[in-house]
Amino acid sequence: MPHQKTPDNPPARLSLISRHLAPDYPINTPYAVERLPDTVDTSLLPKTQIRAISSSPTMSPQPPHPTILIPGPIEFDDAVLQSMSHYSESHVAPGFVATFGETLSMLRKLLQTTDPASQPFVLSGSGTLGWDLIAANLIEPGEDVLVLGTGYFSDGFADCLAVYGAKVTELKAAVGSRPQLPEIEKALSEKRYKAITVTHVDTSTGVLSELANLSALVRRVSPDTLVFVDGVCSVACEELDFDGWKLDGVVTASQKAIGCPAGLSISMFSGRAIKALESRKTPPASYFASMKKWLPIMQNYENKKPSYFATPSPQLVHALHTALSQILSKPLSERFARHKETSDRIKKAVADLGLKQVAPNPDDQAHGMTAIYLPETVQIPQILPSLAKRGVVFAGGIHKEIVTKYIRFGHMGVSVLDLSRGDIDRAIKALEEGLSECGYQKA
Amino acid sequence: MPHQKTPDNPPARLSLISRHLAPDYPINTPYAVERLPDTVDTSLLPKTQIRAISSSPTMSPQPPHPTILIPGPIEFDDAVLQSMSHYSESHVAPGFVATFGETLSMLRKLLQTTDPASQPFVLSGSGTLGWDLIAANLIEPGEDVLVLGTGYFSDGFADCLAVYGAKVTELKAAVGSRPQLPEIEKALSEKRYKAITVTHVDTSTGVLSELANLSALVRRVSPDTLVFVDGVCSVACEELDFDGWKLDGVVTASQKAIGCPAGLSISMFSGRAIKALESRKTPPASYFASMKKWLPIMQNYENKKPSYFATPSPQLVHALHTALSQILSKPLSERFARHKETSDRIKKAVADLGLKQVAPNPDDQAHGMTAIYLPETVQIPQILPSLAKRGVVFAGGIHKEIVTKYIRFGHMGVSVLDLSRGDIDRAIKALEEGLSECGYQKA
Question: In which residues is substrate bound (chains A, B) (predicted)?
Fold first, then answer.
């Protein structure tokens, strides 16, 4: 993009940024656009308000850029980004095989599973591919699946399951809430479900689902039903005890709390899930996403044996290895606590501003993101550029029923854990100042 | 991996490298392991024989490493690797949207299509995902597909088509050859095929298929039959005229001649192919690989409009943008000519060594790789470490009928185009010396 001259008067500057905003862009698929301000023309940003550059010569120095505080992709650590530019290696050379194998083993620790029957998968793809893994491999056409409806992403999971022939029952909660245990128990007692799916954090609403009691309920009421978790916006920032909670599958992606650039589908399946795969009456309904094809490959990599089905991305796997090494260098409990503390601080600041969250019940609120209703007088095309001017990028809404009414603030990974960055404080201050610039005053 | 002490005597050094080789690793899926020597312990490599490090402070300096001359991934340019560590951006921010849009437009130029009905796709995934795109979107269950059998990769394409319900007829050629036009004409006249698939270069044999005459034949004999090309090992190193040759689909990957790290499925489809998608009687048989879901997203990105179905990888797309910008900075004809010249030089050197190629007919030989039969007295576990000692990494065999009998030498991208690297000369010299070390003398 050509460099644009910076106008001197703020209104013109605001207008210059606004030109890049969503109102100019027709939405191609309903509710499918995440609206965000321009992140290109950093000349418009006050230099003191964008994050400091690392001065370490051994790290990949990131040029000045707006701080990405959307619910993924997040800001990345220098060492992780440096791993992305790893020199070329063969995907079956022992060095890379060892790196991939260690990465898979570290995923076991991140998801807190020591059961040798648990099986991690890392594939080139996005978080969405995890839905296909479950739908094409662990459910057979005509089998019933109960989807707990929390928003845009549980709807997507339901759509994906239906594509592969599952008979989907979606138990939908009101916007900002989640299905409650008694109604889930009722649904489970009415029909025999092959599986139940739950979106741990629905990125469209910031609603956190409760897994431990849910899984206990399923085991009590319908013990053969497999419990599958969409952990795209929860893994590495929310407590998740794969073994203790008796989960059968968790699918996630690289670019959220794990803190590795996008491009990897990451998942963990239980021995029960692998049995469901192996006892299918029909072959898996996908080739690239066939867990039968990938299972021996993943097992071999973890055993440090080269193996080939389709070429993985050595660079992304190196970056994931670096990210997981960093995560596991400290107790996970500390990581989750830090995310909770920061989340509490943000949610208090939001309340102090007189704003409401999409998820009103504190027990239902995610700790890696906050979905915030805007004051009625403030519109997304005003507030996001106002934040961008202050070096902070939030996301607009994505849930179809409230899409224009709220914004989303992601707080995961280095922005939460590395206090020296000052990301969170700057974001809270930007939100206060931005709302004020948009004419909002707390009642 | 722990650093290993370098033994002083060459036999022990050879043995140290050999420990990392394939014989220690059981093959998990038949013929599915590409055998390669260790690329980790560079302390074993004479420093003068590994490629020089760039001294430019603006580039990502690559540490000393063995030169990867396998048929993908290839060696990457410094600027491409630098793009991999791009700071975090939103996947729907205008800056990234512009980069992605330009990338899609550049793919049109690379594939030589100016027909506005042609549609490029760039998805997170591997080259294999391209097979799923065709099989799940452009063929409906029960439809007949003629697969031209050239080796391991055409067999894989056939398997993938069958997973989604295509009725596959595979017209297999002898190892090292390709189906001939008269037999293809006969097959096309016997049945009405929805599509024909051809592997432009089968990476398992180094066989190059002829597309222009093939496509003309299909148009003459069976004009409604769609022509789909697996271009994973051909795009950006072999002449490919999408419009002129009236192709309906070309699927490829990032990590071969395009010269961008692995992790992207890259494809181009004709207006006829898109019509086949839009007129399906059944919905696409995949969710993540649904071209109906991705079509508006790709169109919006190219029109510089943010759009969301699943999160792309900004870092990989930046690297692809850099790679394509470099490719298109010079005439494509020059690029193809350079690959042909280098290939001719390598094939002459192979013949001068008294060795035979898997593809004996010069017209059938790829220009981005050479599959070389080993002398009967030389085994893969001897020659690959001997090459590795000399800083050069070749691949072992992968075609099931000849898997232990040949090696593969990839010559694509910067190793061919940047003479200052000396990669090709060093590889030819290493092959000569390595064979000699293994006791081979030309008869």
Answer: 408
